[in-house]
Structures are given as structure tokens and as C-alpha cells.
Amino acid sequence: MAAVARADALRRRGAFDEALAAYEEALRQDPASVRAHVGLQTVMEELGLVFEMRRLYADNPTHRAYVRARLLPHGSRRERLVAMESEPWRSLGRGLWEGSTRRRRADLERAVRLDPGSSWAQLAAVPLASGRDARGRAQVALEAAAWSDPGHPLPHLWRSALEDRRGRLDAALVHALAAWERAPADQRIARRLFDVAQRMGRQGMTRAARALEQRAGALGGVAAWQAAELHARMGDKARADEWFERARTLGVTAAEVSIARARREAPAVANFVRAFRRGVEGRYRHYAATGEADSLAKFRDWARGLFRTTTGVALAPRGKIKSFAFIGELVDPSVDSDEPLVRALAQHNLLLILGRRRGGPPEALLAEIERRTPRRDWTVRGDTVSCEVAWIGRRLVDGYLEWAGGGDLAGLALPGIVLVDLHASALWEGEQRRRRAILARTHARWRGQLALVRGQRDDVRAVDDPAGVADRLLYTAALGFADEVLVHELAHLVDAQRHLPVPRHPLRNLRLAVERGFSQREILSFLERNAQLAAMTDGRTPRQALGVCCSFLGGEGEHARGYAEIVRGIVSVIVRHPERFPAIDSSRVIVQQLDRLTDRQIRSAAQALARRWGLGANAQPMLQPRAPSAEANPSAPGTRPS
Q: How many CA atoms lie within 13 A of 323 on its CB side?
């Protein structure tokens, strides 16, 4: 039990590598420990080892139901209910997903009565206490239920949200602090604590700042940074300076600290940012609830008026809104923008994008700028495109699609400018490094146990059973996600030049529409396919780009469909020219062997595919490959990326 408790503590702190080893040790001591099995499965899922988890627990009836429940995040309610094979889980499942509000409440009450002392029963009681249908919050309760651990942070997080809605901010802060103490590495909890403290005023901010200071080291400087901002808002400049410096020494970059200080020293702009964030999210909620939407001109004028109100600065006359037939509208976000609001925010290292996609509501993106590359010519797939590149850091306001759960965008291509999100790139590379550290310990096993499937000529071309090839490609790839995103987005601009404005290229666009069945979804898949193929032909990291494509196999959306088309195309090139790829056994399923290709072979296959599709390719990559290193050597399983 002590070994499991230690593993649980590591998991809560976000130390997933150490937690995995600790759970494995706990299972060696007690192979029947349900808590250790559940913790191991949870950590494996956090590290993205779903393929390994399926294989490990495929024949274990004790935990099969739990695994099925976790691996069906987008499944139907009935599929989830079937996974709940025993009481009181079945009652809990019905309470979360089935029937009317009254029926769900009755099932939740039954689940609590069956075992009132367990922590999962207390979690089930959270939506009951709210007095309303809180299915989303209760659904997350199921994720924590299996731990049967009263020290878990989620009950306190939900209780904090519940007290906040009831207007009891003091109690909300108490529970937010309790949740944060149990999981200091969870930024969702830290953000909740920060939000409640600010709305409580000086007393709440003082209490939160003291707690953040005491545990600053555990959050790698983020807590220190938040404590500094709290002191700055209370007007204590000396304490704010002290904790900004502490944040820098604990790992927050100098650029981030300078941005934070600039915002603190320009409180009027900081006031605008806070008011803008609240206002935009309020408008997003209104759009989602009612289907009503303002025009982009009205949305832009509201933002200009808010800037004048919060800062006291009157802006020059507004600029023009650019309109693109069949695409949407955009306020120029470039360094040469004619919109005074964009230029005013750029002086504070902030990038503002205001736009509206065709058929959607107006939306905004506000982010901190890390650096800007002036407009220049880039050559991608043999075509030249001229644009500026903005490398952005932390996002302060998300676009409507991201806010509505449409996924985080690592890059964005707009007329004359490309955005590359360095924060998203760093998170992705950090995730890959964590997964590499785990896979390095079991490298020989998961490579040696791979049983490649024999098949007929048509069978070997199939891509529906990749057998974890994405992990094997990314394990041995040179990482450079920001570079991949840059080439991907530049390729989108190349396609925009080839197809937009629509009336200027009637025959080319008609052919595209016919080939794609006049389906907007298929046309978007075509564009994503072209962009990712460019990342393989012209980017620094073709192996990584192919690994990303394989990681989308079996998924939904235009990216998944376009990337699957690339993988099928690469497989067809290998089948047509087996002599060029001697490491591939053509009698077995090709997709499961793609990790045997070198970077040069992957780039060559991608260039052949680009020529087949009439896209063209540079004679030399636009971004030169990185120098060979141990991290990209499949024969060195113990190495870690630099």
C-alpha cells in the first residue's frame, strides 16, 4: 500500500515517468492490487501509450471493463454503460449518461447508497448537491472514481466551482487551495485558484499569493510568476519584482518575464486584455447558445471602443476589412496593418487577429509575440510565396473554434502572414520526450514483440492496423515541431495562391470541386494533405512529419482524412518500387514497417507522391535537415533528445 501511495503522489505532481516505474514496482510487490493497476493504466494513457495499454490488459478480466470505459471517450452512452459490468458502477453509469434528469438523480442516489463511505460515491454526490443537471462535471467524476482515494484533487476542484456558482467565494478559495495542494502541477487548478483569488480582492489575493510562494518550486516557476502578478495587482512593487526574479530563476524564460513586466508596467493595456478576454468569451457563449452573430465590423468596433474605455487612448480612424469570396473576412494583422488597434497592441508585444470564417461568427485571437520575421519570399513545393512569420507564445484569447472545443491550432496561415505557436510546439515536444523516456526502457520488448502481418497484395496496402508505427517513427525522429508547422502553413499559402480568389482560377477550382465530389469536407482534407506532404518534402523532419500522419490514422476530421491519404500514397509508392526500399518486406503489411525507412527514403517517397499528384517539390528541402544525432538512431534505444 505504501508503494501505491508513493506512485499516486508522483502521478499527482505530474511526474509521470517516475510514477510509471513506481506503479510497476508496486505491482511486483502485489500483482492483485486494483489501485496499482488503475494507476498504471492512467499514467500510460497520460503518456500516450494506449496501444501498449490495450495489449497489456487485453486478457485481464479484472480490469477489462475499466480499460474499455477509458478507451471509449467518444463512444455512445450505451457502449459506455456496457463497460460498467458490476454494481455500483452500473448505477453510476446510468446516472451519468442515461435517461431524464429525475432518472439520473435516482441512479446516482442508488450508487451512493450502495457504498456511502467510498470516495467515488462522494464524487457521485457532487452533481446531486448542485441541484441541477451537471452531467459534464459528473462524467469527469467517473475518471477519478476508480482511485477510491480521498486525497484526490478533483472533488475539491468541483466543490470550488460549485461554491463559486453559489456566490460563496471564500469557500471556493478554500477548496481551490485544497485542490492545488494535492496537485500543484495541474495548471487547470492553478488557473482556478488565480481566478477566484482576484475576484475576492486583496484578502483573497494575499492568501493565494502566500500559498503559491510556499510551493513555487514544485511548479517550475509558474507559481512564482502568478504570485508576482498577484502582488503587482495589489500594488506591492517590491514583492512583485522579487517574485518575478524568483520565477526567472525557477525556469520561466527571460522573454516571458519581460512580457509579464511590460504588462504590469502598462496596467491600462493589461486592463484591456482582461476586459477583452471576458467580453470575447461572453460573446462566444452568446453565439453558441443562440446562433446569433454580429458582423465583423460591429465586433471590431466593439473592440476599439473597449480599448478606448479601458486605456483612455483614442484610436485613429479604423482600417479596412478584407473580404475573401467563399472564405471569410479579416482585419489585417500584419506589421503593416492599417488598423490602429492592431498597431497599438503590437507596441506591447501583442498580436491581435480579428476575423470571420464564412458561415461562422466573428472571432478573435490575442497572443504574446516571441519574435517576428519580416515579409520575405519562401519557396515551397517549387512555388514562391511572400509573407511575414509571427512566432507567438502564450495565447490570451483563443479563436472561436478552439474555445468551442475544436482543438488547439499549432499554426495558422492568413493572407500575408503565418503564425507558429511556439507554446503549443514546446508542449508537443515535451510530450514526445516523456514518451521517449518511457519507451527507451522497453525499447527492445516493444520492437521485438511486433508481429508483422502477412497478406496478399491488397492486404499489405491496408493502413487500418498501423500497430503503433507512429510511436516507433516519433521515437527515432529528429524533433522540430515548430519547423514542421512553419512549412505546413506556408504550403497552405501556396495552395491559397493557386486557388484564390475563386473567380480568378475557374478551371482549376472546378476540377478540384469535381474530383472532391463538391464536398467542402473533402476539399479541406485535400488542403491538409497537400500541406503535410510539403512538411515531408521540404521540411527538416520528414520522419517526424510521417509519424504525425500515422498518429492520425483511424481518426476523424479533415486532418485525419488528408493524412491517411498521404500514408496510403507512401505505401503505394513502396509497393510500386520495392527495389528503392530494401528494408521493407513486401509480403507483409507495409504500414507496420514504415519506421524502417530512413529520412532520405521518406523524403524520396514523398517527393514521388507530390509529383504524382501534380504538386511539385523543391530540388533541395526548404529547411535543411538537422545534423544526424544519437536521438535519431534506432540502434541507440537508451539515448534521449538533446
A: 5
